[in-house]
Here is the input.
Amino acid sequence: MNISGKRIVITGGSSGIGFELARQLGGKGARLLLTGRRPNVLAAAVDRLKADGFEAHGVSGDVTVPAARAHLLEHSIKLLGGVDMLVNNAGGVRAGRLEDTTEAELRAMIEVDLLSPILLTRDFLPELRRSGDGLIVNIASGIAQMGIPFYSGYAAAKGGLARFGEALRRELKGEGVHVVTVFPGATDTPMMATTKADASMGFALQPVADVVASIVDGIEADAFEVVRGGPARAALLDLNRTDPAAVDARFLALKPGLESAVRDHSAL
Ligand SMILES: NC(=O)c1ccc[n+]([C@@H]2O[C@H](COP(=O)([O-])OP(=O)(O)OC[C@H]3O[C@@H](n4cnc5c(N)ncnc54)[C@H](OP(=O)(O)O)[C@@H]3O)[C@@H](O)[C@H]2O)c1
Here is the structure.
């Protein structure tokens, strides 16, 4: 896709990966509309983008709330005149043992990481079809490709999002709307502020600018997937397919340290 002039809606565009994506897409001439729940954080993000000379709008709201999703669609059409790209980026996580995770926390992850992207995509599809060069970008997670202990609820939601995107890409093939799924590894954003997991546990934080540069490359190349981590990650995913017991054994050794490192990891 040629990004210049494209009308792009980014959920969770006020922080982290979403904000950096807005910045890099703005640099390529995109017209931007961002959403997030905290109006002050959103307004500051929009102001920074405008100061860089980009067209940026903010519509605050919670994507898990039906009226807020309707409001977002209505204002996207009003402010941008239509939509060429929807980035389903808003997300949340709560780590910890499944028995220690509340029903409310599990529902919150399924709502923001899986159900809201599905519903927003459904509601934005008429606009994306009208574009003639429509794109849906789903920000999943490396955990969608390989389950990690103490992230079972998050893995369920992000794994579901990845498979949703694959099925929808095939459903829309030849109809002017493409779908790309992104699988970031641990990325240095506010979402990771409450985890103590480190590189020795497989959580080396990647700079957000590098992660987003890969996403932009994938968008421009009409990729199906954006996978981070290079050959080492590819080898681990391969091992997980061919010898999952070997991966289980690695995690068995890591479990005690990992459990205490991620016990407080919460960003919902
Ligand atoms: N950081 C990582 O290591 C990593 C790795 C893999 C995948 N991801 C995924 O990447 C995406 C972005 O995460 P990030 O690391 O950039 O996190 P972040 O810095 O915490 O940003 C999350 C953004 O989503 C917004 N948001 C959260 N819940 C929302 C809701 N219900 N409605 C509307 N907006 C909402 C937040 O704004 P408000 O709080 O104001 O609503 C914020 O703008 C997420 O889907 C995450 O799961 C992150």
